[in-house]
Protein backbone atom coordinates (compact mmCIF):
# COMPACT_ATOMS: atom_id res chain seq x y z
CA UNK A 1 0.00 0.00 0.00
CA UNK A 2 1.37 3.41 -0.93
CA UNK A 3 0.51 7.08 -0.50
CA UNK A 4 -0.76 9.02 -3.51
CA UNK A 5 -0.96 12.82 -3.41
CA UNK A 6 -3.42 14.56 -5.73
CA UNK A 7 -2.57 18.24 -6.26
CA UNK A 8 -5.32 20.52 -7.57
CA UNK A 9 -5.83 24.25 -8.13
CA UNK A 10 -9.44 24.76 -7.02
CA UNK A 11 -12.22 22.87 -5.25
CA UNK A 12 -14.06 20.82 -7.95
CA UNK A 13 -10.96 20.19 -10.12
CA UNK A 14 -10.46 16.95 -8.18
CA UNK A 15 -14.07 15.94 -8.97
CA UNK A 16 -13.72 16.51 -12.70
CA UNK A 17 -10.22 15.20 -13.35
CA UNK A 18 -9.17 12.56 -10.80
CA UNK A 19 -12.15 11.62 -8.57
CA UNK A 20 -12.53 8.12 -9.99
CA UNK A 21 -8.84 7.35 -9.59
CA UNK A 22 -8.89 8.65 -6.01
CA UNK A 23 -11.95 6.57 -5.09
CA UNK A 24 -10.39 3.54 -6.73
CA UNK A 25 -7.03 3.85 -4.95
CA UNK A 26 -8.76 4.51 -1.62
CA UNK A 27 -11.05 1.49 -2.00
CA UNK A 28 -7.97 -0.63 -2.67
CA UNK A 29 -6.43 0.45 0.63
CA UNK A 30 -3.95 3.07 -0.57
CA UNK A 31 -3.53 6.32 1.34
CA UNK A 32 -5.02 9.20 -0.65
CA UNK A 33 -4.04 12.80 0.15
CA UNK A 34 -5.68 15.77 -1.56
CA UNK A 35 -3.77 19.07 -1.71
CA UNK A 36 -5.67 22.11 -3.02
CA UNK A 37 -3.97 25.43 -3.73
CA UNK A 38 -6.90 27.86 -3.47
CA UNK A 39 -10.46 28.04 -2.15
CA UNK A 40 -11.75 28.79 -5.64
CA UNK A 41 -13.30 32.02 -4.41
CA UNK A 42 -13.20 33.54 -7.93
CA UNK A 43 -15.69 30.88 -9.09
CA UNK A 44 -19.24 32.10 -9.38
CA UNK A 45 -21.56 31.23 -6.53
CA UNK A 46 -25.22 31.31 -7.43
CA UNK A 47 -26.80 32.32 -4.13
CA UNK A 48 -24.49 35.12 -3.07
CA UNK A 49 -22.85 33.51 -0.01
CA UNK A 50 -19.14 33.86 0.79
CA UNK A 51 -17.67 31.89 -2.12
CA UNK A 52 -14.47 30.85 -0.34
CA UNK A 53 -16.22 29.54 2.79
CA UNK A 54 -18.87 27.73 0.78
CA UNK A 55 -16.42 26.15 -1.64
CA UNK A 56 -14.11 24.97 1.14
CA UNK A 57 -17.05 23.22 2.81
CA UNK A 58 -17.93 21.60 -0.52
CA UNK A 59 -14.33 20.50 -0.91
CA UNK A 60 -14.37 18.80 2.50
CA UNK A 61 -17.54 16.88 1.54
CA UNK A 62 -16.05 15.84 -1.79
CA UNK A 63 -12.81 14.66 -0.14
CA UNK A 64 -14.77 12.57 2.38
CA UNK A 65 -16.93 11.02 -0.36
CA UNK A 66 -13.80 9.98 -2.27
CA UNK A 67 -12.24 8.36 0.80
CA UNK A 68 -9.41 10.87 1.21
CA UNK A 69 -7.27 10.24 4.29
CA UNK A 70 -6.08 13.84 4.47
CA UNK A 71 -6.98 17.18 2.93
CA UNK A 72 -4.37 19.94 2.80
CA UNK A 73 -5.49 23.44 1.83
CA UNK A 74 -2.56 25.69 0.87
CA UNK A 75 -4.77 28.79 1.12
CA UNK A 76 -3.52 30.87 -1.82
CA UNK A 77 -5.91 33.40 -3.41
CA UNK A 78 -7.73 32.18 -6.52
CA UNK A 79 -6.27 34.05 -9.53
CA UNK A 80 -9.42 33.85 -11.61
CA UNK A 81 -9.31 33.26 -15.37
CA UNK A 82 -7.70 36.61 -16.07
CA UNK A 83 -4.90 36.01 -13.55
CA UNK A 84 -4.99 38.39 -10.55
CA UNK A 85 -1.52 39.85 -9.77
CA UNK A 86 -1.89 38.69 -6.15
CA UNK A 87 -3.33 35.26 -6.98
CA UNK A 88 -1.82 31.79 -6.67
CA UNK A 89 -0.44 31.95 -10.21
CA UNK A 90 1.66 35.02 -9.33
CA UNK A 91 3.42 33.38 -6.37
CA UNK A 92 6.99 32.15 -6.70
CA UNK A 93 6.59 28.53 -7.81
CA UNK A 94 9.74 27.54 -5.88
CA UNK A 95 8.23 28.83 -2.65
CA UNK A 96 4.96 26.95 -3.18
CA UNK A 97 6.89 23.87 -4.28
CA UNK A 98 8.74 23.78 -0.96
CA UNK A 99 5.40 23.64 0.89
CA UNK A 100 4.14 20.86 -1.35
CA UNK A 101 7.45 19.01 -1.03
CA UNK A 102 7.06 19.12 2.78
CA UNK A 103 3.76 17.26 2.44
CA UNK A 104 5.33 14.76 0.02
CA UNK A 105 8.18 14.14 2.48
CA UNK A 106 5.88 13.80 5.47
CA UNK A 107 3.68 11.36 3.63
CA UNK A 108 6.54 9.49 1.97
CA UNK A 109 4.43 9.86 -1.14
CA UNK A 110 5.01 7.42 -3.97
CA UNK A 111 2.94 9.35 -6.48
CA UNK A 112 1.99 12.97 -7.17
CA UNK A 113 -0.49 14.26 -9.73
CA UNK A 114 -0.11 17.52 -11.63
CA UNK A 115 -1.60 19.07 -14.79
CA UNK A 116 -0.28 19.25 -18.35
CA UNK A 117 1.92 22.35 -19.06
CA UNK A 118 -1.03 24.34 -20.45
CA UNK A 119 -3.14 23.49 -17.40
CA UNK A 120 -5.75 21.84 -19.61
CA UNK A 121 -7.49 24.91 -20.99
CA UNK A 122 -4.96 27.54 -19.89
CA UNK A 123 -6.27 28.75 -16.50
CA UNK A 124 -3.30 30.56 -14.87
CA UNK A 125 -3.73 28.63 -11.59
CA UNK A 126 -3.71 25.31 -13.46
CA UNK A 127 -0.51 26.26 -15.28
CA UNK A 128 0.98 27.15 -11.91
CA UNK A 129 0.01 23.68 -10.59
CA UNK A 130 2.12 22.21 -13.40
CA UNK A 131 5.15 24.38 -12.52
CA UNK A 132 4.85 23.80 -8.77
CA UNK A 133 4.28 20.04 -8.96
CA UNK A 134 7.21 19.54 -11.33
CA UNK A 135 9.53 21.36 -8.89
CA UNK A 136 8.08 19.70 -5.77
CA UNK A 137 8.42 16.17 -7.17
CA UNK A 138 12.11 16.90 -7.83
CA UNK A 139 12.65 18.40 -4.35
CA UNK A 140 10.98 15.48 -2.59
CA UNK A 141 12.27 12.89 -5.06
CA UNK A 142 8.74 11.58 -5.55
CA UNK A 143 9.14 8.67 -7.95
CA UNK A 144 5.90 8.97 -9.91
CA UNK A 145 4.62 12.25 -11.34
CA UNK A 146 1.46 12.01 -13.42
CA UNK A 147 -0.27 14.88 -15.22
CA UNK A 148 -4.04 14.65 -15.00
CA UNK A 149 -5.47 15.60 -18.36
CA UNK A 150 -8.14 14.79 -20.93
CA UNK A 151 -7.71 13.07 -24.27
CA UNK A 152 -8.05 15.98 -26.71
CA UNK A 153 -9.74 13.83 -29.36
CA UNK A 154 -12.32 12.66 -26.85
CA UNK A 155 -12.83 16.22 -25.64
CA UNK A 156 -13.46 17.52 -29.17
CA UNK A 157 -15.97 14.74 -29.77
CA UNK A 158 -17.74 15.59 -26.50
CA UNK A 159 -17.97 19.28 -27.41
CA UNK A 160 -19.41 18.40 -30.80
CA UNK A 161 -22.01 16.09 -29.26
CA UNK A 162 -22.96 18.77 -26.73
CA UNK A 163 -23.31 21.39 -29.46
CA UNK A 164 -25.53 19.07 -31.51
CA UNK A 165 -27.66 18.60 -28.38
CA UNK A 166 -28.05 22.39 -28.16
CA UNK A 167 -25.75 22.97 -25.18
CA UNK A 168 -23.73 26.19 -25.22
CA UNK A 169 -20.07 25.13 -25.14
CA UNK A 170 -16.77 26.93 -25.67
CA UNK A 171 -15.31 26.84 -29.22
CA UNK A 172 -12.90 23.98 -29.88
CA UNK A 173 -9.47 25.54 -30.40
CA UNK A 174 -7.77 22.15 -30.69
CA UNK A 175 -5.08 23.35 -28.26
CA UNK A 176 -6.53 22.11 -24.96
CA UNK A 177 -5.39 19.20 -22.77
CA UNK A 178 -3.26 16.44 -24.35
CA UNK A 179 -3.13 14.53 -27.62
CA UNK A 180 -3.95 10.80 -27.60
CA UNK A 181 -0.35 9.96 -28.42
CA UNK A 182 0.94 11.76 -25.29
CA UNK A 183 -1.36 9.91 -22.89
CA UNK A 184 0.37 7.12 -20.98
CA UNK A 185 -2.39 6.07 -18.54
CA UNK A 186 -6.07 5.54 -19.29
CA UNK A 187 -7.72 4.62 -16.00
CA UNK A 188 -11.06 2.83 -16.18
CA UNK A 189 -13.09 4.34 -13.33
CA UNK A 190 -16.54 3.06 -14.33
CA UNK A 191 -16.97 0.99 -11.13
CA UNK A 192 -16.35 4.21 -9.12
CA UNK A 193 -18.74 6.48 -11.00
CA UNK A 194 -21.17 6.67 -8.06
CA UNK A 195 -18.39 8.18 -5.91
CA UNK A 196 -17.30 10.46 -8.76
CA UNK A 197 -20.83 11.68 -9.34
CA UNK A 198 -21.31 12.29 -5.60
CA UNK A 199 -18.05 14.24 -5.48
CA UNK A 200 -19.18 16.40 -8.42
CA UNK A 201 -22.59 16.95 -6.84
CA UNK A 202 -20.90 17.98 -3.57
CA UNK A 203 -19.71 21.10 -5.39
CA UNK A 204 -23.28 22.35 -5.53
CA UNK A 205 -22.30 26.01 -5.92
CA UNK A 206 -20.65 25.13 -9.24
CA UNK A 207 -23.31 22.68 -10.35
CA UNK A 208 -26.14 25.07 -11.07
CA UNK A 209 -26.36 27.16 -14.21
CA UNK A 210 -27.97 30.56 -14.25
CA UNK A 211 -28.86 32.73 -17.21
CA UNK A 212 -26.37 32.33 -20.04
CA UNK A 213 -23.69 30.90 -17.79
CA UNK A 214 -23.28 27.23 -18.58
CA UNK A 215 -20.94 25.42 -16.26
CA UNK A 216 -19.16 22.20 -17.05
CA UNK A 217 -20.26 20.56 -13.80
CA UNK A 218 -23.90 21.50 -14.36
CA UNK A 219 -23.87 20.13 -17.91
CA UNK A 220 -22.17 16.87 -16.90
CA UNK A 221 -24.44 16.24 -13.90
CA UNK A 222 -27.50 16.56 -16.14
CA UNK A 223 -26.31 13.84 -18.52
CA UNK A 224 -28.44 10.68 -18.55
CA UNK A 225 -26.68 7.81 -16.77
CA UNK A 226 -25.37 5.94 -19.88
CA UNK A 227 -23.94 9.18 -21.30
CA UNK A 228 -22.42 10.10 -17.93
CA UNK A 229 -20.74 6.69 -17.93
CA UNK A 230 -19.40 7.27 -21.41
CA UNK A 231 -18.25 10.83 -20.71
CA UNK A 232 -16.69 10.27 -17.29
CA UNK A 233 -15.73 6.58 -17.18
CA UNK A 234 -12.08 7.18 -18.09
CA UNK A 235 -9.44 9.38 -16.48
CA UNK A 236 -6.28 10.23 -18.38
CA UNK A 237 -2.70 10.85 -17.27
CA UNK A 238 0.60 11.68 -18.90
CA UNK A 239 3.79 10.46 -17.30
CA UNK A 240 6.55 12.54 -18.82
CA UNK A 241 9.69 11.79 -16.91
CA UNK A 242 10.98 9.17 -14.60
CA UNK A 243 13.40 9.65 -11.77
CA UNK A 244 16.11 7.05 -11.44
CA UNK A 245 14.80 4.02 -9.60
CA UNK A 246 11.15 4.88 -10.18
CA UNK A 247 10.35 1.86 -12.30
CA UNK A 248 8.80 -0.05 -9.41
CA UNK A 249 5.26 -1.18 -9.66
CA UNK A 250 2.87 1.51 -8.51
CA UNK A 251 -0.90 1.48 -8.10
CA UNK A 252 -1.74 2.94 -11.46
CA UNK A 253 0.46 0.49 -13.33
CA UNK A 254 -1.97 -2.23 -12.31
CA UNK A 255 -5.00 -0.18 -13.26
CA UNK A 256 -4.20 0.50 -16.88
ZN1 LIG B 1 -9.57 24.85 -11.49
Automatic annotation (TrEMBL):
GO terms for MF: hydrolase activity, acting on carbon-nitrogen (but not peptide) bonds, in linear amides
GO biological process, one term: glycoside metabolic process
Cited InterPro entries: GlcNAc_PI_deacetylase-related (IPR003737), LmbE-like_dom_sf (IPR024078)
Pfam families for this protein: PIG-L (PF02585)
Keywords of this entry: Zinc
PANTHER family: 1D-MYO-INOSITOL 2-ACETAMIDO-2-DEOXY-ALPHA-D-GLUCOPYRANOSIDE DEACETYLASE, N-ACETYLGLUCOSAMINYL-PHOSPHATIDYLINOSITOL DE-N-ACETYLASE-RELATED
Protein name as it appears in the record: N-acetylglucosaminyl deacetylase, LmbE family
Organism: Lentzea jiangxiensis
